[in-house]
Amino acid sequence: MRMITAHLVDALRVFGFDAKHAQVYLACLELGSTTVLELARRTRLPRTTLYPMLESLRREGYVRLGKRHRGSVYTAESPAALAARLQTRSQAFTEILPELEAIRASVRPGAGVTLYEGSDGFRQLWERIFRSGVSAYEICTSGVGLTEFVREAYLVERIIAERIRRGIRSRQLIVDSPAARRIVAKDADELRESRFLPQGITLPATTITFGEEVGFITTRRENTMILIASGEIAVTFRTTFDLLWHAAVPIVRPGKP
Predict the structure, then answer these.
(1) What's the CA gap between 225 and 150, in Å, rounded?
(2) d(Cα 30, Cα 2) in Å, to the nearest integer?
(3) Residue of 125, 112, 201 lying closest to 159 (CA atoms)
(4) In this structure, are residues 244 and 197 in contact, taking their beta carbons and an 8 Å threshold?
(5) By CB neighbour count within 10 A (0-12 exposed, 13-18 middle, 19+ buried), where does 237 fall?
(6) What is the rounded (10 degree) CA torsion for 206, 118, 133, 100?
(7) What are the φ/ψ torsions at residue 65 (nearest 5 degrees)?
(8) Which end of the chain is more exposed for a tag (fewer CB within 10 A), N or C?
(9) 139, part of any domain
Protein backbone atom coordinates (compact mmCIF):
# COMPACT_ATOMS: atom_id res chain seq x y z
CA MET A 1 0.00 0.00 0.00
CA ARG A 2 1.32 3.46 -0.91
CA MET A 3 2.42 5.80 1.84
CA ILE A 4 0.48 9.06 2.19
CA THR A 5 3.19 11.61 1.45
CA ALA A 6 3.36 15.13 2.78
CA HIS A 7 3.33 16.73 -0.67
CA LEU A 8 -0.06 15.13 -1.45
CA VAL A 9 -1.49 16.43 1.81
CA ASP A 10 -0.11 19.92 1.07
CA ALA A 11 -1.57 19.85 -2.45
CA LEU A 12 -5.02 19.00 -1.11
CA ARG A 13 -4.74 21.77 1.46
CA VAL A 14 -4.43 24.20 -1.45
CA PHE A 15 -7.69 22.70 -2.75
CA GLY A 16 -9.37 23.54 0.57
CA PHE A 17 -8.75 20.52 2.80
CA ASP A 18 -7.12 20.85 6.18
CA ALA A 19 -4.35 18.36 6.97
CA LYS A 20 -6.52 15.76 8.71
CA HIS A 21 -9.35 15.87 6.16
CA ALA A 22 -6.74 15.48 3.39
CA GLN A 23 -5.29 12.47 5.21
CA VAL A 24 -8.75 10.85 5.48
CA TYR A 25 -9.60 11.52 1.82
CA LEU A 26 -6.29 9.99 0.68
CA ALA A 27 -6.87 6.96 2.89
CA CYS A 28 -10.34 6.49 1.36
CA LEU A 29 -8.74 6.77 -2.08
CA GLU A 30 -6.22 4.07 -1.24
CA LEU A 31 -8.63 1.67 0.45
CA GLY A 32 -11.51 1.93 -2.02
CA SER A 33 -14.88 1.28 -0.34
CA THR A 34 -13.87 1.18 3.29
CA THR A 35 -15.28 1.15 6.79
CA VAL A 36 -14.61 3.55 9.60
CA LEU A 37 -12.72 0.79 11.41
CA GLU A 38 -10.39 0.30 8.43
CA LEU A 39 -9.89 4.03 8.15
CA ALA A 40 -9.06 4.26 11.84
CA ARG A 41 -6.36 1.62 11.39
CA ARG A 42 -4.98 3.31 8.29
CA THR A 43 -4.99 6.90 9.58
CA ARG A 44 -4.45 6.13 13.29
CA LEU A 45 -7.28 8.50 14.10
CA PRO A 46 -9.97 7.48 16.60
CA ARG A 47 -13.38 6.57 15.20
CA THR A 48 -14.99 9.31 17.28
CA THR A 49 -12.86 11.80 15.31
CA LEU A 50 -13.45 10.12 11.95
CA TYR A 51 -17.27 10.12 11.99
CA PRO A 52 -17.72 13.93 11.93
CA MET A 53 -14.83 14.31 9.47
CA LEU A 54 -16.37 11.78 7.09
CA GLU A 55 -19.74 13.48 7.36
CA SER A 56 -18.10 16.81 6.50
CA LEU A 57 -16.33 15.23 3.50
CA ARG A 58 -19.62 13.65 2.40
CA ARG A 59 -21.47 16.98 2.56
CA GLU A 60 -18.74 18.61 0.49
CA GLY A 61 -18.98 15.82 -2.08
CA TYR A 62 -15.49 14.41 -1.54
CA VAL A 63 -16.65 10.96 -0.37
CA ARG A 64 -19.81 8.89 -0.88
CA LEU A 65 -21.62 6.90 1.81
CA GLY A 66 -22.84 3.40 0.92
CA LYS A 67 -23.82 0.06 2.45
CA ARG A 68 -21.93 -3.22 2.56
CA HIS A 69 -23.28 -6.27 4.36
CA ARG A 70 -24.44 -4.89 7.69
CA GLY A 71 -22.34 -1.74 7.84
CA SER A 72 -21.64 1.55 6.18
CA VAL A 73 -18.76 2.11 3.79
CA TYR A 74 -17.16 5.27 2.45
CA THR A 75 -15.78 5.71 -1.06
CA ALA A 76 -13.61 8.62 -2.20
CA GLU A 77 -14.73 10.59 -5.22
CA SER A 78 -12.21 10.26 -8.06
CA PRO A 79 -9.52 12.94 -8.37
CA ALA A 80 -10.72 13.59 -11.93
CA ALA A 81 -14.18 14.41 -10.58
CA LEU A 82 -12.66 16.87 -8.11
CA ALA A 83 -10.60 18.48 -10.86
CA ALA A 84 -13.70 18.83 -13.05
CA ARG A 85 -15.59 20.43 -10.16
CA LEU A 86 -12.73 22.86 -9.53
CA GLN A 87 -12.68 23.79 -13.22
CA THR A 88 -16.44 24.37 -13.19
CA ARG A 89 -16.14 26.60 -10.13
CA SER A 90 -13.29 28.53 -11.73
CA GLN A 91 -15.28 29.05 -14.94
CA ALA A 92 -18.34 30.19 -13.01
CA PHE A 93 -16.27 32.68 -11.03
CA THR A 94 -14.54 33.95 -14.18
CA GLU A 95 -17.92 34.66 -15.77
CA ILE A 96 -19.02 36.94 -12.91
CA LEU A 97 -15.58 38.50 -12.36
CA PRO A 98 -16.32 41.67 -14.44
CA GLU A 99 -19.46 42.32 -12.37
CA LEU A 100 -17.59 41.79 -9.11
CA GLU A 101 -14.82 44.17 -10.21
CA ALA A 102 -17.45 46.76 -11.19
CA ILE A 103 -18.94 46.55 -7.68
CA ARG A 104 -15.50 46.94 -6.14
CA ALA A 105 -14.65 49.89 -8.39
CA SER A 106 -17.83 51.69 -7.38
CA VAL A 107 -16.73 51.92 -3.74
CA ARG A 108 -14.10 54.39 -2.68
CA PRO A 109 -12.08 52.59 0.01
CA GLY A 110 -11.13 54.32 3.21
CA ALA A 111 -7.68 54.29 4.71
CA GLY A 112 -6.38 50.80 5.42
CA VAL A 113 -3.15 49.12 6.47
CA THR A 114 -1.79 45.84 5.07
CA LEU A 115 1.24 44.03 6.50
CA TYR A 116 3.51 41.71 4.52
CA GLU A 117 6.46 39.69 5.76
CA GLY A 118 9.66 38.25 4.31
CA SER A 119 10.62 37.69 0.70
CA ASP A 120 7.09 36.60 -0.25
CA GLY A 121 5.72 39.79 1.25
CA PHE A 122 8.28 41.81 -0.70
CA ARG A 123 7.07 40.23 -3.94
CA GLN A 124 3.41 40.77 -3.00
CA LEU A 125 4.03 44.47 -2.38
CA TRP A 126 5.50 44.91 -5.84
CA GLU A 127 2.63 42.95 -7.38
CA ARG A 128 0.28 45.40 -5.65
CA ILE A 129 2.16 48.29 -7.24
CA PHE A 130 1.95 46.73 -10.70
CA ARG A 131 -1.77 45.92 -10.34
CA SER A 132 -2.54 49.48 -9.21
CA GLY A 133 -2.34 50.75 -12.79
CA VAL A 134 -0.08 53.71 -11.96
CA SER A 135 2.18 55.15 -14.64
CA ALA A 136 4.81 56.41 -12.17
CA TYR A 137 5.87 56.24 -8.53
CA GLU A 138 8.34 57.91 -6.15
CA ILE A 139 10.88 55.91 -4.16
CA CYS A 140 13.20 57.02 -1.36
CA THR A 141 15.86 54.45 -0.52
CA SER A 142 19.38 53.70 0.64
CA GLY A 143 19.79 51.58 -2.48
CA VAL A 144 20.99 48.46 -0.67
CA GLY A 145 18.17 47.35 1.66
CA LEU A 146 16.04 45.79 -1.09
CA THR A 147 18.61 43.10 -1.81
CA GLU A 148 18.17 41.82 1.75
CA PHE A 149 14.83 40.34 0.63
CA VAL A 150 15.59 39.12 -2.89
CA ARG A 151 18.70 38.68 -4.99
CA GLU A 152 19.81 41.54 -7.22
CA ALA A 153 19.13 39.35 -10.27
CA TYR A 154 15.48 39.05 -9.20
CA LEU A 155 15.21 42.83 -8.81
CA VAL A 156 16.59 43.39 -12.29
CA GLU A 157 15.09 40.48 -14.20
CA ARG A 158 11.65 40.37 -12.58
CA ILE A 159 10.71 43.61 -10.84
CA ILE A 160 12.52 46.20 -12.94
CA ALA A 161 11.86 44.26 -16.16
CA GLU A 162 8.13 44.11 -15.33
CA ARG A 163 8.09 47.82 -14.56
CA ILE A 164 9.72 48.57 -17.89
CA ARG A 165 7.30 46.27 -19.70
CA ARG A 166 4.38 48.15 -18.17
CA GLY A 167 5.98 51.52 -18.95
CA ILE A 168 5.99 52.61 -15.29
CA ARG A 169 8.47 55.42 -14.70
CA SER A 170 9.99 56.29 -11.33
CA ARG A 171 11.68 59.15 -9.53
CA GLN A 172 14.26 58.01 -7.02
CA LEU A 173 15.93 59.71 -4.07
CA ILE A 174 18.89 57.54 -3.14
CA VAL A 175 21.68 57.89 -0.59
CA ASP A 176 24.96 58.59 -2.40
CA SER A 177 27.31 55.59 -2.31
CA PRO A 178 29.34 53.47 -4.74
CA ALA A 179 26.43 51.00 -4.92
CA ALA A 180 23.96 53.83 -5.58
CA ARG A 181 26.13 55.18 -8.40
CA ARG A 182 26.06 51.76 -10.08
CA ILE A 183 22.28 51.81 -9.83
CA VAL A 184 21.73 55.31 -11.20
CA ALA A 185 24.10 54.64 -14.11
CA LYS A 186 21.24 52.55 -15.56
CA ASP A 187 18.52 55.19 -15.06
CA ALA A 188 17.90 55.87 -18.75
CA ASP A 189 17.50 52.19 -19.58
CA GLU A 190 15.26 51.53 -16.57
CA LEU A 191 12.79 54.43 -16.99
CA ARG A 192 14.10 56.15 -13.88
CA GLU A 193 15.29 59.60 -12.85
CA SER A 194 17.41 59.79 -9.71
CA ARG A 195 18.86 62.37 -7.39
CA PHE A 196 21.36 61.84 -4.60
CA LEU A 197 20.76 62.32 -0.91
CA PRO A 198 23.92 63.19 1.10
CA GLN A 199 26.36 60.43 1.99
CA GLY A 200 26.26 59.09 5.52
CA ILE A 201 22.60 59.78 6.31
CA THR A 202 20.65 56.96 7.95
CA LEU A 203 17.79 55.67 5.79
CA PRO A 204 17.13 52.03 6.77
CA ALA A 205 13.58 51.83 5.42
CA THR A 206 12.53 52.35 1.79
CA THR A 207 9.33 54.26 1.01
CA ILE A 208 7.38 53.98 -2.26
CA THR A 209 4.50 56.34 -3.04
CA PHE A 210 2.16 55.25 -5.83
CA GLY A 211 -1.36 56.40 -6.61
CA GLU A 212 -3.16 56.80 -3.28
CA GLU A 213 -0.95 54.32 -1.42
CA VAL A 214 2.39 54.39 0.39
CA GLY A 215 4.54 51.32 0.92
CA PHE A 216 7.28 50.95 3.53
CA ILE A 217 9.97 48.27 3.23
CA THR A 218 11.89 47.79 6.46
CA THR A 219 15.21 46.04 6.94
CA ARG A 220 15.49 42.26 6.98
CA ARG A 221 15.94 42.48 10.75
CA GLU A 222 12.38 43.78 11.12
CA ASN A 223 11.30 41.73 8.08
CA THR A 224 8.09 43.69 7.44
CA MET A 225 6.45 45.57 4.59
CA ILE A 226 3.68 48.03 5.48
CA LEU A 227 1.18 49.30 2.90
CA ILE A 228 -1.03 52.27 3.79
CA ALA A 229 -3.96 52.96 1.48
CA SER A 230 -4.79 56.60 2.11
CA GLY A 231 -5.00 59.39 -0.44
CA GLU A 232 -4.19 62.02 2.18
CA ILE A 233 -1.09 60.19 3.41
CA ALA A 234 0.02 59.64 -0.20
CA VAL A 235 -0.33 63.37 -0.95
CA THR A 236 1.66 64.20 2.19
CA PHE A 237 4.49 61.83 1.28
CA ARG A 238 4.51 62.98 -2.35
CA THR A 239 4.74 66.63 -1.25
CA THR A 240 7.59 65.77 1.13
CA PHE A 241 9.31 63.86 -1.67
CA ASP A 242 9.03 66.87 -3.99
CA LEU A 243 10.59 69.15 -1.36
CA LEU A 244 13.51 66.74 -0.93
CA TRP A 245 13.77 66.29 -4.69
CA HIS A 246 14.33 70.01 -5.27
CA ALA A 247 16.89 70.12 -2.45
CA ALA A 248 18.74 66.97 -3.56
CA VAL A 249 21.82 66.88 -5.75
CA PRO A 250 21.07 66.39 -9.46
CA ILE A 251 23.18 63.68 -11.07
CA VAL A 252 25.68 64.90 -13.63
CA ARG A 253 26.05 62.39 -16.45
CA PRO A 254 29.40 61.93 -18.23
CA GLY A 255 29.74 64.37 -21.08
CA LYS A 256 27.10 66.73 -19.68
CA PRO A 257 27.77 70.00 -17.86
Answers:
(1) 13
(2) 8
(3) 125
(4) yes
(5) buried
(6) -140
(7) -100, 130
(8) C
(9) yes
> Residue 105: pLDDT band by 50, 70, 90 thresholds?
low
Give a yes or no: residue 156 inside a domain. Answer: yes
How high is the pLDDT of residue 1? 46
pLDDT tens digits, 17-65: 888 888 898 888 888 888 999 999 988 999 999 999 999 888 888 888 9
Task: Decide: 27 and 8 in contact? Cβ < 8 Å.
Answer: no
Confidence grade of residue 14 (pLDDT, cut at 50, 70, 90): low
45 in the Ramachandran plot: left (φ > 0), alpha (ψ -120 to 50) or beta?
beta
Q: Is residue 181 part of a domain?
A: yes
Pairing of strands 136-141, 206-210: antiparallel
The amino acid present at 54, given as its one-letter code, is L
Q: Would you say residue 100 lies in a domain?
A: no
Same-domain pairing of 140 and 233: yes
DSSP state of 147: G
What pLDDT was estimated at residue 93? 86
- Is-above-0.90 flag for pTM? no
Q: Identify whether the C-beta of residue 163 lies closer than 8 Å to the C-beta of residue 126.
A: no
Q: Select, from the ranges 88-102, 107-121, 208-222, the one with the highest average predicted confidence (pLDDT).
A: 208-222
Q: How many CB atoms lie within 10 A of CB 246?
A: 9
Domain boundary among 76, 93, 120: 76
Centroid of chain to Cα 73: 41
Q: Which amino acid is at 133?
A: G
